[in-house]
Amino acid sequence: MSTVYWNVFCSGCRAQNLPRYRFKCLRCANYDLCEACHENKVVTGAEHKPDHPFQCLVDIPTKELLFAGEPIPTLEADSFTCPVCSTRGHSADDLVKHAVNDHKADSTKVICPLCVAVHGSDPHLLDNIGTHMSHIHGSADRTVRFDLPGNDEG
Ligand SMILES: [Zn+2]
Ligand SMILES: [Zn+2]
Ligand SMILES: [Zn+2]
Ligand SMILES: [Zn+2]
Predict the structure, then answer these.
(1) Are 129 and 110 in contact (CB under 8 A)?
(2) Spacing, Cα 1 to ligand 4 middle (Å)
(3) Domain range summary for the chain, segments of one domain joined by +
(4) Tens digits of residue pLDDT in 95-128
(5) From the CA of 98, how far away is ligand 4's center (Å)?
């Protein structure tokens, strides 16, 4: 198998192919780890710190295994990490509510884990995750939206 699903390399071991799982740092614009380096909590470079939260992304063959016989989700993650307080296991809906309610006034520079999970996207660091969540993904009392540019394939 020579298909490189994610066009990124591991910041830890420099591997160009991250099979199954990709761990993307939600505080650095360009920091990804493979499964093994994430497990070993590899830290390289000046920017990345050990307490940075990661979003775990799953490639299509792995999604097909995980969701065998069920509809396969379009997003590349089925559970989301809060980029501000690092809590894990949020559904997309939960995370929007959580960020809008709890991190409304937070100005930590973070990357949106929901935007990261859209294939082919390259999200930037945001100034305010609460504002982004309510503007892009719906407010706390509405359902999650993913009307992102470039997400209309199919
Ligand atoms: Zn690695
Ligand atoms: Zn980082
Ligand atoms: Zn949080
Ligand atoms: Zn987003």
Answers:
(1) yes
(2) 31
(3) 21-136
(4) 999 999 999 999 999 999 999 999 888 899 999 9
(5) 13
